[in-house]
């Protein structure tokens, strides 16, 4: 006779206490990532606010340059 470890034996009651639902785990991870993202964003904003105007302008130029490059890549990929 072949015994399956997932089925209860003669009257044995199985508990699901040790098992976690995949949806619960995913939801918990999603909330954790959201909270961590918010904390990191807030910290970045505080650091940015303390930068001198010269460094803020340099960052703006770099971001604009990266965005322009990305837009040009997308345009070339989609032949726009």
Layout of secondary structure:
Elements: H1 22-49, H2 53-77
Please provide a brief summary of the model.
With 80 residues, the chain is mainly α. It is 66% helix and 0% strand.
Mean pLDDT, all residues: 84
Q: Label the structural class.
A: mainly alpha
Percent in strands: under 5%
Give the count of helical stretches.
2
Helix content: 55-70%
Order of helices and strands: HH
Task: Please tell me what the overall shape is.
Answer: elongated
Tell me the radius of gyration.
Answer: 26 Å
Question: What are the low-pLDDT stretches, counting only 5+ consecutive residues below 50?
Answer: none
The N- to C-terminal Cα distance equals: 68 Å
**Number of E-type strands:** 0
Main beta-sheet annotation: none
The total tally of domains equals 1
Kindly list the characteristics that best describe this protein:
elongated; 80 residues
Describe the overall structure:
66% of the residues lie in helices and 0% in strands. By secondary structure, the protein is an all-alpha fold.
